[in-house]
Known about the structure:
Blueprint: H1 2-25, H2 28-46
Helix pairs in contact: 1-2
Amino acid sequence: xxxxxxxxxxxxxxxxxxxxxxxxxxxxxxxxxxxxxxxxxxxxxxx
Length: 47
């Protein structure tokens, strides 16, 4: 349980860093690309 919580915390931190970077770059295409990369990268863990 603790390990799972740690993994999700790490995923949220990584996602928030990417989102903050995206808002700074202010590009919708970049936003779509990063969300797709994130989903593909962690698809197995979310199932």
